[in-house]
Amino acid sequence: MLPFTLAIIGVPFVAAGLALLLPRRIGSLVAIAAAAMVSGCGLSLWGEITDDQVIVFSLPWFPSLGISADLRVDRFGVFFVLLIGLIGLGIFQYSRAYFRDGPSRPFLAAMLAFMASMCGIVLSDSLLLLFIFWELTTVVSALLIGIDYEREDGRLGALRAFLVTGAGGLALLAGIILLGQAANTYSLSELTSRVPTILASPLHGPALFLILIGAFTKSAQFPFHFWLPGAMAAPAPVSSYLHSATLVKGGIFLIARMEPIFGTSPYWQPTLASVGLATFLLAGWSAVRSYDLKELLAYSTAAYLGMLVTFYAYAPVAGRSGEMVLILTHALYKSALFLLVGWLEKAAGTRCLSLLEREQWFRTNPFEAVLFGIGAGSMAGVPLLLGFLAKEVFTSALFGDTFPEITPAIAVGIVASILSVAYALKLFVSTFWGPSAPDQTRGYPPHKISPWLLIVPACFLVPLLIGGLMPATVAGMLEPETPWEGGLAIWHKADLKFALSLGVF
Hints:
Blueprint: H1 2-21, H2 24-48, E1 55-57, E2 60-62, E3 67-68, E4 71-73, H3 75-98, H4 105-123, H5 127-145, H6 152-183, H7 188-191, H8 195-200, H9 204-218, H10 227-230, H11 236-245, H12 249-262, H13 268-288, H14 293-318, H15 323-348, H16 353-356, H17 361-364, H18 366-380, H19 386-399, H20 408-432, H21 452-469, H22 471-478, H23 496-504
Antiparallel strand pairs: 1-4, 2-3
Helix pairs in contact: 1-2, 1-4, 2-3, 2-4, 3-4, 3-11, 3-15, 3-21, 4-5, 5-6, 6-9, 9-12, 11-15, 12-14, 13-14, 13-20, 14-15, 14-19, 14-20, 15-18, 15-19, 15-21, 18-20, 18-21, 19-21, 21-22
């Protein structure tokens, strides 16, 4: 098991070095092979690890200081490895078709280094090792955002992302040091057994807040969410991989790792619920007001991440059942939508809704419209798609088993959910249902568009359809210990929650 764990981190780093030396076409094949290797090793680990099993490999690092580079294998970490590897595999194939002359060598090297760093984060048991990989993602992601360095918006977006997430990384390091002093260890597996000691320490409050600042900056949470739309200057494959499936999920992953340690702290729920719900609402409102499709998707990403932060705020009481469904659903539909916007830019010559809403693209591109519709429907949480089950998971965490009185938190959640339906409709309707047919004399697309620009996002959307028709089967593969209700992904019973869901739509 240790060789597979090391290969998941090491192979992409080696491939990144090769990609800088090899010709573009060969380098892109090396990148695909590396992503396939990560995915294969992840599948092997997924088959070997049980639900509650945690395996820690201790590797000497600084023995004189008592610091080791411990690696950790558990279901949650391996789930992220599969997410990083499989979506990365699709992104590399998409990139071969997206860039006219193929992806450049710096692009391939940076993407592979980012993949390796993300795998390092999710497989680290040592918080110090996690921090090193955390900072590597900060540096490499800034390089990818500004990969087209001749564009001013790309340079500014990269600088803003680097400054915000870099400052958050410094806060994270300070929090890790305080937590280590309070518990006398930097090992995640040991920290969970020392919770009473940590919570009794006067350092636990500052440590928690500093660690959460690091998580909030990486996941674009209020008031740090402003950097994410500027990062949309990056090419579509970068936006899809970093800003929907992996990088911004790093903060969510860190919060999930901290929940067993700080979940019973009196500061946990108020802090996470306040920040998460504020982001869910404010980013959703910004998405409704956006006319650039990538900006809309960026704000909607921050909004969904706010929903995930809120989910973990209530996890110590409501439990964490369904967390993988929530994360997988967003990673699939949002990465697919970013890739589809990349196709649309090449097909229509624009991604501005003020121009697209004048033309009825559904008439000439019905298949592409259906793909957009599946992604938008998952974003809105409509029945018969996996997004509906994700919405049910969040609703159950926020409301509890019975329908409670309407508290301010629930009221904010309802309004934010309404906004998510609104911007999903705006994305789909304004793009494809204009009053007139597209003008075929404009000269778009100027070049033949590769079918891979549609095949890859379609592959990402298929699990959402399967999960909508067989939610218990798909969710049971992710979390077999959770008793999922069977049948189609429609409302399970007619109650006040059912009426509330209808009211949101």
